[in-house]
Amino acid sequence: MKLLVIGSGGREHALTWRLLKSPRVSHVLVAPGNGGTATMDNVTNVDAHTPQELVELARRENVGLTVVGPEAPLAAGVVDAFEAAGLPIFGPTRAAAQLESSKDFAKQFMLRHGIPTAAYETFTDPVKAHAYIDEQGAPIVIKADGLAAGKGVVVATTVQEAHDAVQAMLGDSSLGQAGARVVIEACLTGEEASFIVMADGKHILPLASSQDHKRLLDGDQGPNTGGMGAYSPAPVVSPVLHERIMKEVIEPTIAGMAADGISYRGFLYAGVMIGDGDDETRPIGVLEFNCRMGDPETQPIMMRLQSDLLDAVQAAVAGTLDQISLQWDPRTALGVVMASAGYPGKVRTGDVIHGLREVMDARDEMVVFHAGTALVDGNVQTSSGRVLCVTALGDSVQAARERAYTALERISFEGAQYRKDIAWRAIKR
Question: Domain ATP-grasp: where (predicted)?
Answer without folding.
Answer: 107-318
